[in-house]
Amino acid sequence: MFDCLVGIDEKIKRAEKHIGELKVEVDRFFESDPYCVFSYSELDSRDLCFAVTVVAEPPPSISAIVGDLINNLRNALDYLMCGLFEVNGQPCDENVFFPITWKANEFKSKLSGIERGAGKDVVDILQSIEAYKGGAGHALWQLHQLNSRDKHRLLIPIGSAYQALHVDVSKGFPGDDLPSLMIGIRPDESMYPLKDGAILFKIKAPVDATQVDMHPKFTLEIAFGEGKIVQGEPIIPTLQNYIDLVKGVIEPFRPLLGG
Fold first, then answer.
1. Order of strands, sheet of 48-54, starting from the edge strand that comes earlier in the sequence
2. Which entry of 15, 27, 99, 255 is 20 to 30 Å from 163 by CA?
3. Which helix (H) or strand (E) element contains residue 106?
4. Distance CA 103, CA 124 (A)
5. What was the pLDDT predicted at 173?
């Protein structure tokens, strides 16, 4: 089944190429300064607030790249299942695809048909993957749902709030000759979606002047806006995880395909 493995590997390579293109698009977006952080003191509390002005939203080109990447990964999984049927002497038609379901019992039901077409060795591996919502392969369920949505409309990436705040703690100590020492602080949860005027960080009054001098830097990322599938998760690390996951899923099947 050399041709099958070639097709699988080419689809994964294409997905990896899309990650590179996506990083370029995201960098270009942030270079345009779409989010501007400013500070002000609240009138009543006198707390020092760091808030954001949303100048621009992520362009649709990012959504298009994300959709292509996800489609290539889903295709790689379906190529895999088709090859496993064929190497077992069974035809591959439009009803043959890698099983990903909403519920565990649905997944188990599909495996009985796959065993007749691809053999028990294939089913044994699939059982360990648990590609259904809430199973060990929950991320495969996310991938499948995102791919289904992209068939009907562009996926929605949306700017999320800061993933981390970096401050120079050396500014909190006396002396002017101390080297810069930046530390990262992750918020309890990412603010999502990022809205114009949203407060990212607040220093309670009375404000210590050294805290203001710590040069706070906010890390902002583009995140998915896909409801209950993958809400508010940063797109690049999430997609890289999907690529790594699909590669890992395919690996134990390679010997069965002569790879």
1. 35-41, 48-54, 199-203
2. 15
3. helix 104-118
4. 18
5. 47
Any idea which of 108-117, 152-161, 249-258 has the lowest mean pLDDT?
152-161
pLDDT, the chain, mean: 87
Taking alpha carbons only, the member of 247, 239, 183 closest to residue 215 is: 183
End-to-end CA distance of the chain: 8
Q: Indicate the angle between helix axes 235-250 and 60-87, nearest 10 degrees.
A: 10
Whether the upstream peptide bond of residue 99 has omega within 30° of 0, thus cis, is no
Claim: this prediction has a pTM higher than 0.85:
yes
Q: How confident is the model at residue 188, as a pLDDT? A: 58
Give the residue from 187, 183, 211 showing the smallest Cα distance to 199: 187
- Amino acid making up residue 86: E
The residue whose two tokens read 């790594």 is 244
* Strand segments (E) across the chain: 35-41, 48-54, 157-168, 182-185, 199-203, 217-226, 230-234
Query: Do residues 196 and 148 touch, judged by C-beta distance below 8 A?
Result: no
Give yes or no for a contact between 208 and 197, defined as CB atoms under 8 angstroms apart.
Answer: no
Residue among 52, 112, 49, 100 at smallest CA distance from 73: 100
pLDDT digits (tens, 9 = 90+) for 10-34: 999 999 999 999 999 999 999 999 9
